[in-house]
Amino acid sequence: MKNTIGLTVAMTALALSLSGCDKAPQSKEKALLNVDVVEIGDDSLGSELHFPAIAAAADRAELSFLVAGEINKINVKAGDIVKKDTVLATLDPTDYKLQVDNAKARFDVVDSQYRRSKPLVDKGLLAKSQFDEIGAQRAIAKAELELARLKLSYTELKAPVDGVISRVPVQQFENVGIGQSILNIHDATQVDIRIQVPDVLFSKHGGKTREENNATIRPHVRTEDGKEYRASVKEFTAQPDPETGSFMVTLTMPMPEDKFILDGMTVEVVVEELGLYNDRASQVEIPMETVFNEDGDALDPSNKFVWVVGADNTVEKRKVKVGELTPTGVLVTNGLERGDKVVSEGVNRLRAGQSVNIVANKEIN
């Protein structure tokens, strides 16, 4: 009987012991809450905004002849790269050469008469008034000769700068008039980039100098192949587009050595987001859902907190100072440092000192 009682007690104790072992891990698992975090990286200040943009010639010229005539030859086509003073097109010079020959003949006659008359005036054999009239005729003939030579030189259309031919709307043997467009040339050393900027951004930078904007925004132009080139602010409009409400900002940059960015090409402008919103280098950007208020104090902008996960995987309630809103989050000007892990989801389920299990860690770059 005693053995039976003892065996029963032993089995009961063993069962209780095993039951206790099974419940301990379940209690521990309930204490660990799965959370997602964002980690403040070294490049948090480099959050970027992207703007679609159109390339435009920094310096363009629509070239035309200063005299009328038939196009004798076109030496270039669209896309050709030319040097300054390169002959781009010519007119038939026949008529203009004849005008030079006629003017030269008239000048030679009057000039010869002028030279013969001068000694006669000195000897008193020719009236001074007659000699002055011959001198005037000589000056007129000389001016006509110079004009004829100038018109002949105008039958050659030369490149005013080093550039790229972008358009040739005429053809050989076509008769063209004075001032009629023959071709377009763009500066090959510089290119402009035009972007539409929302009024909320323009209002923060429209009143600054180009130097201040370039130091703050640091724009880059990204081409289709992914390469980036440093650009600078050239100018901006003072009035918004009536249809879009945005402002036109023109950037400028040297023409890349490895490619030509031609007028009308689409590119992308990349700017540092924090540079657009604030000049303080100490702030970081975090998602809006990471920030919360004290209970019952949701409207107080100065009473903002985040949950920061420590090295021991426990959470710390940390007060932060928030700044301006951005399209992707909010700027924190004080309270966070590089390497901090901020809980991004489930912030309302946590309490100070609670242990958590990080299931997703996204670094903010």
From TrEMBL:
Gene Ontology terms, MF aspect: efflux transmembrane transporter activity
Glycosyltransferase recorded as keyword: no
GO cellular component, one term: efflux pump complex
Gene3D superfamilies: 2.40.30.170, 2.40.420.20, 2.40.50.100, Helix hairpin bin
Ranges of residues in domain Multidrug resistance protein MdtA-like barrel-sandwich hybrid: 65-181
Pfam family membership, one: RND-MFP_C
Highest taxon in the source lineage: Bacteria
Domain Multidrug resistance protein MdtA-like C-terminal permuted SH3: 302-349
InterPro entries the record matches: MdtA-like_BSH (IPR058625), MdtA-like_C (IPR058627), RND_pump_MFP (IPR006143)
PROSITE patterns registered for this protein in UniProt: PROKAR_LIPOPROTEIN
Location within or outside the cell: Cell envelope
Keyword entries, A-Z: Transport
Signal sequence bounds: none
PANTHER family: EFFLUX RND TRANSPORTER PERIPLASMIC ADAPTOR SUBUNIT, MULTIDRUG RESISTANCE PROTEIN MDTA
Family: Belongs to the membrane fusion protein (MFP) (TC 8.A.1) family.
Name the UniProt record assigns to this protein: Efflux RND transporter periplasmic adaptor subunit
Source organism (scientific name): Grimontia sedimenti
Lineage per the UniProt record: Bacteria, Pseudomonadati, Pseudomonadota, Gammaproteobacteria, Vibrionales
